Amino acid sequence: MSLESKGKFKDRQPKLSASQRWYLLALHAGGEHTQAELAKLFSASRTPIYRELRRAGIESANRMRASRCDA
Prior knowledge:
mainly alpha, 4 helices, 56% helix
């Protein structure tokens, strides 16, 4: 019997709450903060920041630069 079936592992809690996600997207849309600055502001690593922006349909600047270089 696996640990998961015994209920030992549960879904991971989101790093950002719904209100934090909304605020993150608003700050990012303002264009005054880098993604690294947003990560510090929310006491998170850059990964959850990138993930939330991707979920909202926003490409990161690094991905846009990489796609331009490939063309």
